[in-house]
Design the sequence.
């Protein structure tokens, strides 16, 4: 998701040790973990509340389904004929003509 490797994590820890200090770093990490858990719970509550407010038929609603591209693919994708979207080959240019 974040594309962070082992070396980058180690560098962040060293920078954290320098800026925050080794005595406060565990407390800061615990606070960050609590914040992430709280944000995850808030997102889950919002999703559940949205499902309840939308009513029946939206029990299987996923957050990624609300993305505009996914919404268009879901509702309009069946209408579009796939043959109209075929990629036509580009014409080849003879280098001697140039």
Sequence:
């Amino acid at each position: 998701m974040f594309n962070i490797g082992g070396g980058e994590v180690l560098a962040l820890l060293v920078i954290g040790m320098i800026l925050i200090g080794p005595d406060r770093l565990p407390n800061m990490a615990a606070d960050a973990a609590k914040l992430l858990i709280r944000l995850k719970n808030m997102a889950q509550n919002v999703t559940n509340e949205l499902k309840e407010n939308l009513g029946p038929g939206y029990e299987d609603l996923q957050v990624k389904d609300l993305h505009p591209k996914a919404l268009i693919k879901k509702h309009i994708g069946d209408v579009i004929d796939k043959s109209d979207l075929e990629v036509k080959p580009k014409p080849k240019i003879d280098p001697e003509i140039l």
Notes: The chain is about 55% helix and 0% strand. The helical segments are 6-19, 25-54, 68-76. The longest helix spans residues 25-54.
